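Per-residue structure
===
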Amino acid sequence: MKSYYVYILASKRNGTLCIGVTNDLVRRVYEHKQGLVEGFTKKYNVHNLVYFEETNDVESAIIREKRLKKWNRKWKIELIEKNNLEWKDLYAGIAG
């Protein structure tokens, strides 16, 4: 069964946030970290994986991403800190 991920990247603790969706979290975060993705994350150095969710349904992942993007900043920070109080970069834990 295929997995889909909704993720939040941050430039630093309480810094600039970026929300995305992917079917390969390790590859996608790697691309952000290496500056291979043109645009917002590269421009603002947003490459620390601070939160992610996994689902088996692509439609629910896309809906969740759109909802999170509409959330106010306070709610996004609360979501991150509920699971990652220290804002640690979670990439090493998923990259194997």
In short: The chain is about 45% helix and 20% strand.
